[in-house]
Specification:
3 copies of one chain form a homotrimer.
Chain A lengths: L1 H40 L5 H28 L7 H4 L11 H23 L6 H24 L5 H10 L9 H19 L6 E2 L2 E2 L7 H20 L10 H21 L4 H15 L8 H22 L12 H19 L12 H30 L5 H6 L1 H6 L5 H6 L4
Antiparallel strand pairs in A: 1-2
Helix pairs in contact in A: 1-2, 1-4, 1-8, 2-4, 2-5, 4-5, 4-7, 5-13, 7-12, 7-13, 8-9, 8-10, 9-10, 9-11, 10-11, 10-12, 11-12, 12-13
Chain lengths: 417, 417, 417
């Protein structure tokens, strides 16, 4: 009898490790998506930098999160022997479940600076971007992550549950990851200013993407990885539910269809529309009805198209290359709020959320992101310099920083380099 | 004691959810494969449309299957509260297993119109393709799916088991998905006619692919996702067997090697040969011997090469851009029949299938596909117009529909747009 | 009671099948990574051949391993009926677990010739490469695999345990796969000689890569798949531990950061740095501390950069196109040895390894690889001819072997073909 109990427990923890590991690998794959979405959207002369920024940013974020950030968010540090880490040690689950959880959450944390890098592409210094990535994953992101997902500082209890009636619900990070990241990006883009030649005497000069296929590949990899991010989440096998996966699917479809209609067939809108739906569904994917999720995603797809167009108005002097403010900032905000509507039982959801909590929490997340972005990128700008010199920017960030172009053989042969 | 029983049951359903979810994500990833296989095979001026057609087609198929098709195939609708959907509700399994099953099957259903779109690429209207996708996933595909996999209308019992001795066996859809899709494609290609300039006075004018790397990426993504499609299938953990995975592997290798030999080193044949093997193994991957699977895949690889070449004979006036009729239509048909040979105990298989049932069922599937394709694309043509105007086709479907090319920056700089 | 026991056992074997299957699919996906890493690194005129060599090599390796190699390594052959294969048969686990294990290990075996092909790219014949792939996966690799992982010939017992104190530990193949593959590549590159025009009168003529994005995609796919290779390994669910996954993550990050610093921002170094860290962590990922893994990966990243530069010195007359000797040969060797340092309890590891065993075993692996490579490629060269004729090489291997270029539409239009 105890043998069976032990076998079942072993199976349980093994299965949990496996489940989370698949999720972590999928979230890691999203970073390939960030890299190629950015490489396809920027101009040819900035493709290499887009790829390198995302990969290097991932490494630096992960190390910062390992040594500092994870302790801030969850109070757990890794400075114990490997035996303790892998099971049996205080605060660590058997079979290293805690370590896979770290892997998963580190890949999520690294997504924040990957999001930001899409907004400030083509003109920022690599060293400064890496420094900002370390500050985000090591300090600024873990604070909000800990407040929402680990109930740090008792805000969930005192402010949300106590004063607004329900805890702030953000299942897979519409606000914690996307709104925060998108609004950090907002401040970073403002701090950096537009690319040279982007706005000229009140006119916007189009800077068309270098490659729709690479952009599309990035979007596909993000969508595929998202099902790990969303459907698996930082949770155990026991709480895995098909509802989450189905809601992500429906929201993605809603985003595609709405962006197809609103965006006049522009491939950038159709592919980013899928992402808009997925950003928005994160907060409430565990509690909404699939038809609610379809609607939430559809609104997000249309919202992205309209906000992206608005934000390109020369009067804002706002040059957000990939539209990360519209995509992550606004659609994340919408997702946090929408969870307080379509998660309600009245709208077919599972309930347990409140509109007031979602509204306040989402706005707080966005405001925190904007403020954190201002502090981080202003500091980095003052201390290290955020922007390339104008000559370097004109030659292109690839040649200036990496001394190579995206198609070196051809460029050497044609005498372009 | 009952606690343990409950724990084991919980583990069971959690593990089933996880297993199917991984499969569903992999099948979803196949759609990225469809998109890039098509983008690499068409001409440069049609790459954007290839990408958008597959992504938009996926979204529309999924929504049509959600609201209509799934009810036709399995008699299950989603118009109940989220609690019921996610477990406990009538007709729904715990932990939302039914919903993950839907995700898996929706991604399979959407593959049918993705298959067709490869045949009619470069000259069809987007709105008409979307309408056809909705009709396929919402109506025509679920009918055959339900007959074979849900025993609808009692055909399995009366016709196959009763008159031919065994049920029609199609484990992962050589016929239900591929032959049906390939023969719908056959009719769609005939309805649409060849691309302008493809055949001229009895001569075929080669229209070489735009990009072998993109074509290859598509093939790789399809192969990777196929192991989810085939090895996981719409089944529970209990029925997962290594035999299925090994058979898929061997058939793929057989297809590659045969196409390498038959195809004179042409990269299109080598990469599509892998797919040909995988198409053919679907029907019997759960019951064949691996050496049988190797042979079935090898025949499929050679069949694809020869049929693709034959179909390009100007006398047929048949312009199937990706060769979907040869790949899915013929190799799917072969796979359905081959399952009735190599699935037999006499050929080392597990048995339980009959040649007569497989022959009749496969031919019926192909005939149903050809007929359905005729009805769908003729109707859409008459009501909406299936084909672009000749001027638009000459400029290219990307500029005509999406007002952008695949490499907009370069094309704008070079004054090509 | 026995029912529960049976249910638990069924769950166990089902879960093991699933776990390994996911791992196998991920290792299979690494081959797409090999293909695109090579396609992006070679010149435009060799991209098609890079893609075809990896895909065809995979198929031929798998078949050779199925019919011969697996029996050499593990003493298991597949010439029994499908029922026996899939469970119940002598030497086969229930639910075909053995067959999924084969799938996993076949994809690992095929990696060896994929590694080699990156070194000898742009100038080798396809038929000769395929023959070499069959010899590697069918004969030379299984010998070393069997010695280390299946204790064949008693070397683990007599030499390592008996004379050096501990068994040779190589959890996921730093030596068995990578050092062996990298040193086979070393001999193959020497046998073949440099590309025409690569070294001229003591000067190295740079042959810049055709495409950084394709190179980057290859690296990303390899990294993603590596987590299946490393974190899942050929093991059961029971032995899955988060430590392995975390160590792979940390080593990869260490490799990226070190290569970023040592490599002056060169995107080839940054992306290959990730791979260098992953190569090195394989041997000890199950027993090192994550901080040890970070260090091991960092050393590997810097080692790759320096060795790659050194190896391009004209005096060596050594033209290893992708740097597979530096990446797999040297970083694999370092990984095998490092496991004997950072796996020790004194360095925070789990212990159970010895420095002497690791040093001797790693050097033996590298020497075996170099010798096997010499025998294989010398034999193939003498019997079949390894190298293209000079005219064919100048036109490019794509046109010479495949009669097509990577961008056929454009090349036909521009009259380049």
């Amino acid at each position: 009898m105890p043998d069976i109990q032990k076998a079942v427990q072993g199976l349980q923890s093994g299965a949990d490790v496996q489940f989370l590991l698949v999720g972590a690998i999928l979230v890691f794959a999203m970073h390939a998506g960030f890299a190629f979405l950015q490489a396809g959207t920027v101009r040819h002369k900035s493709q290499v930098n887009a790829l390198c920024t995302v990969l290097a940013g991932f490494a630096i974020s992960t190390v910062a999160y390992f040594f500092v950030g994870y302790a801030i968010a969850y109070g757990v540090a890794f400075f114990v022997r490997a035996e303790a880490l892998n099971g049996g040690g205080k605060g660590f689950d058997p079979q290293g479940l805690s370590l896979v959880k770290f892997f998963f959450l580190a890949a999520v944390a690294a997504a924040v600076s990957a999001i930001v890098s899409g907004g400030i592409a083509e003109r920022a210094r690599l060293g400064s971007q890496c420094t900002a990535a370390a500050l985000i994953a090591g300090l600024f992101y873990p604070v909000v992550e800990g407040v929402v997902w680990n109930r740090n500082f008792g805000l969930q209890e005192s402010l949300f549950k106590g004063m607004l009636g329900e805890e702030f619900h953000d299942f897979a990070g519409s606000v914690v990851v996307h709104a925060v990241g998108g609004w950090i990006g907002f401040s970073a883009v403002r701090q950096l200013g537009p690319r040279l030649g982007r706005y000229d005497n009140g006119r916007a000069i189009a800077m068309p993407p270098s490659s729709v296929p690479w952009l599309a590949l990035g979007a596909w990899l993000l969508c595929i990885g998202w099902f790990g991010f969303n459907a698996i989440g930082a949770h155990s096998l026991k709480s895995a539910t098909g509802l989450i996966a189905l809601n992500a699917l429906m929201a993605m479809c809603g985003g595609i269809i709405a962006a197809l209609i609103a965006g006049d067939g522009d491939p950038r809108f159709i592919h980013n529309g899928a992402l808009a739906g997925l950003v928005a569904v994160c907060a409430g994917s565990d509690i909404m009805h699939p038809i609610g999720a379809l609607f939430v995603g559809g609104v997000a797809g249309a919202l992205f198209v309209h906000a992206f167009r608005k934000a390109s108005d020369p009067k804002w002097n706002f040059d957000d290359v990939l539209g990360v403010w519209a995509l992550h900032g606004l659609c994340g905000l919408w997702g946090g709020i929408a969870c307080g509507i379509f998660g309600l039982k009245a709208f077919g959801g599972l309930g347990g959320v409140g509109f007031a909590s979602q509204l306040v929490g989402s706005l707080m997340g966005a405001a925190y992101g904007a403020l954190a972005g201002f502090v981080i990128y202003r500091t980095v700008d003052v201390l290290l310099g955020l922007r390339l010199g104008p000559d370097d920017e004109r030659r292109g960030v690839d040649l200036a920083i990496h001394a190579i172009t995206a198609t070196p053989e051809e460029d050497v042969r044609m005498g372009r380099v």
